Amino acid sequence: MVKLRLKRCGRKQRAVYRIVAIDIRSRREGRDLRKVGFYDPIKNQTYLNIPVILDFLEKGAQPTGTVQDISKRAGVFIELCPNQQTKFN
Q1: pTM of the predicted protein model
Q2: I need a labelling partner for 62 at 20 to 30 A (CA). Which of 14, 20, 33, 49 fits?
């Protein structure tokens, strides 16, 4: 099973995160399948590759809670099902 989750990067006390598609059995810094975004909580900057995220979600990938919140703010789930209420809302 594939999950969309955060992978910690950066230095001590200055964390930035990559949003990655990764196998559920891998550890946090394990080998990812694909990098799909970037999140900097200090500067509150987010970059998401929305077409790739939508592709993984359509194939059954599950986002973690934090990635789901970041994606909601960016409007990813609105693009996934524009006419329907989804379980992500």
Answers
A1: 0.79
A2: 14
